[in-house]
Design brief:
The complex is a heterodimer of chains A (532) and B (405).
Chain A lengths: L1 H20 L5 H19 L6 H26 L11 H9 L2 E2 L6 E9 L6 E9 L5 E4 L2 E4 L22 E3 L2 H12 L12 E2 L8 E2 L2 E2 L1 E5 L2 E4 L5 E5 L2 E6 L31 H8 L1 H4 L2 H31 L6 H8 L1 H4 L2 H11 L6 H9 L11 H29 L4 H8 L4 H29 L2 H8 L17 H11 L6 H35 L1
Antiparallel strand pairs in A: 1-9, 2-3, 2-6, 2-8, 3-4, 4-5, 7-8, 10-11, 11-12, 12-13
Chain B lengths: L1 H19 L9 E6 L1 H18 L2 E6 L2 H11 L8 E5 L3 H6 L3 E2 L12 H6 L1 E2 L2 E2 L2 E7 L1 E5 L10 H14 L4 E4 L5 H10 L5 E3 L5 E6 L4 H15 L9 H9 L3 E6 L4 H6 L4 E3 L3 E3 L6 E2 L2 E10 L5 H12 L2 H11 L2 E2 L2 H5 L4 H10 L3 E2 L6 H17 L5 H16 L4
Parallel strand pairs in B: 1-2, 1-3, 9-12, 16-18
Antiparallel strand pairs in B: 3-16, 4-16, 5-6, 7-16, 7-17, 8-12, 8-13, 10-11, 14-15
Helix pairs in contact in B: 2-12, 7-8, 15-16
The chains are: A alpha+beta (532), B alpha+beta (405).
Amino acid sequence: MLRLIALAVIDAFTIWFVAQLVPEGEVILAILVAAVALLINAAFLVEGMYPYRWFSPGLALLILFIVFPTIFTVYVAFTNYRDGNLLTKPQARDVLEDQLYLPPDAPTYSWTAFRSTDDPSDYALWLVPIQGADQPVLATEGESIPADEVDLGDNTLDEDGIPTGLPGYEQVARGQLLAILDSVLSQIEFGDPDAVIKLSPRRPLQEAGVFRQKYSFPDDDTLFDNETGVTYEAVKGTYTPVDGPYVNDEGQVTDAEGNPLPVVRPGFYVVTGLDNIKRLINNDRIRGPFVRVFLWTIAHAVFTVFVTFSLGLFLAIVLNAKFMPGRAVMRTALLVPYAIPAFISVLIWKGLLNEQLGIVNKTISSVLGVSGPGWTSSAMWVKVGILMVQLWLGFPYMLLICTGALQSIPNDIYEAARVDGASVLQQFRHLTLPLLLVAVGPLLIASFAFNFNNFTVVELFNKGGPPIAPDTAAGHSDILITYTYDLAFGSGRGADYGFASTITIVIFLMVATITFFNFRFTQSWEEISENV
Amino acid sequence: MKKRLTLLLVAVMVMVPFASTIQAQEEAPALTIWADETRAVVIEDLGAAFEEEYGVTLNVQQLAFGDIRDQLRIAGPAGEGPDVIVGAHDWLGELVLNGLLSPIDLGDAAADFSEVAINAFTYDGDLYGVPYATENIAFFYNTDLVETPPATWAEVRSLSEEIMDSGAADYGYIRQEGDPYHFFPIQTAFGGYVFGIDAEGSYDPSDVGIDAPGSIAALQWVQDMVKDGLIPTGLDGVAAETLFMDGNAAMYITGPWNIQNFLDAGLNFAIAPAIPAGEEGGEPGKPFIGAQAFMVSAFSENPLLAQAFLTEFVAREDVQLSLYEEGNRAPALLSALEQLEDPYLAALAEAGAVGLPMPAIPEMSAVWTSWGDAVTLAMQDTSQSPAELFTTAADTIRSTIAGEE
């Protein structure tokens, strides 16, 4: 029973949530949420699904937080989701429909609000002309009365032309106006129904007038500007002028002076198919540095795994030797770099390696008398610097897994080797290393895949710099993921999420391919262990 | 099984109305304001009286400055966003392009504000905020090492040589590597520019001046300084500041945010009322002017109230003065600015009087990248020709703006 109530709560919440999502245009997410809720219901209501009850929370979270973002990224890769096309179609339409304009001959007034003493929800505006009208007007809901026909009772007009009082009404104090601007005054249709008087959207306290809606939508993909008479069509989510009162010889829609009209913003995002991929392939400025960035990405990941593994293994073997005093303390101490968050370590290293003030270069110049390397300005040294930081950050992990793996290698095979007369080096070469790789091989691949996309270290160390040339966003130390970031946010018209998603998919395919072959390769190690 | 299903259905029917009450609207009008920590304090302090006077609630949410812009694009359209944000004018291009801001109109009251601040917040002819502060960089010099501020960049060079020869300090004039924002005053001193100005006084994105002769001459000057060992390489902003703050360098271009640090360090320094010119009797270098303002979100549920908050609260003299006291930036409201007697602020304002608002077009991120890379490369690798670097940068920027990507 309790279970059913809980289920009902979940279902009710789902229905509410889906009902919120669909009008926002988030159809994919709505379908997923509904599917997840159905699965939960099935798990609890269908007898045969009993074991899944225990899985269901985990599976639900997996779908919502892993599967959905993945699907969404793939989807975004085929859209033009970027600055200028960030909204959904209904959102863009809402924004445009809210815009008002003042027709050239329309009157504007300064206004004073009066509240009915009988009905506190009934208001009237006393309007004193600013332009376009010759006499004050009293506007109530649905009606506007010229001032000379208004019965003022005993009241008179003050020097600003505002009555000191109106029969049946009291003036709203200035202090109370702000609170009723949106919730009351902008909701009431003051004046004649065909010339509704609205508070100015840009200076609500100072001005009211017959503002009209600027944009209307004759059909779903067409936008009509009521002010200029120009028609816009949605082309790939951007409202582009197609027809208007002024068209030049080249067929462009122009303003009265003959300047071509710009598109109307904001646009909305739509599926643009392979546009992003075409851009990636066809653009020399983007594709040019791709190969060199790719090579450094591979080199960076390979070297990182190699140096961290080498040092980690060396330390693990040394600390595994029984004659080493204080082994436990040393092991713990060496794990410290692993315990400190990477971004702090990277920033500290960045300070240490500062070219002018860093302790490293100061020491080099005072001891050796030569100026130290350009850790941030030289194409080679910046890479060396990143690998040093990676070594510092990564060796404790390797030490950890190697220590574990070493201790699981049985001691008797070393005894047998010694009886056979194998040297220490031969033991390492033919026993320790192959057996160790069986255990840690998959972890090395995981480490490689992780460092392939190690955004934190590369971006924090030198933001991918130093630059290669002014015509490319790529820098000498950029790896694919930081290059993607530069391309998406620093090299075009604002942020371009669609394009960034396309590149991440390309990167994913690369990592997946490399990892696949790596795992195939490690299977050969498995054979070694079977033969021992 | 069937019984269970029926029961569940009934339960769901009962629950749905309850669930939907969650979204019921609250009665009292409330304004949600996104502000960074410095501004949030002021709004909370002075906002209480405003709340009382007008019967509205101010709901101040504190965000990191950059997050205000980034989260507005997500939260705004989703209906979760603020009514009013605090932000910088160089966000405008991007925010307007995405339809996230509502234009406002100050009418005659616009004349009460610094003209450059109003211009900075005007985009495509519409005003998008009530400015509260302006800031610009200027030429700082160490008064123990430099008696009178140099009038031209040639003098800066000879002063640097003098100081380094005499051993009074390690360096004369220094600058961080790259960083086009701090390079712009030198570029304009030599007659260079980034974007041309059209007849209406606003930037013309089709006129890119990064490869203009003046721009190249300025980069050449910097490169020669580096080549002759007068400006050290590999300095980032923090390192350059430290050198100047410790008295190891005599001259440096920086902004008001460092004044307090320098004072705390006990440095004897002054701000030149004009950035050095390119040649004897020439016009002084022009810094970029940055402006900060309160803006109205296009997705506000209370757009009129938000507009009224800007004119009735942000435009008040006491609010602008409090914002100055917390943030140390010159108030944008002229009557507030006139009340201040701070020699550093006065010198900054004088140097900034000839300044230009930082361009806010959406392509600026690409402009900063290419332009900055060219300046960085000219300093890092003195064998590269400034003319070539700036020509490449300008061509790249032109094709980005033309939409060729």
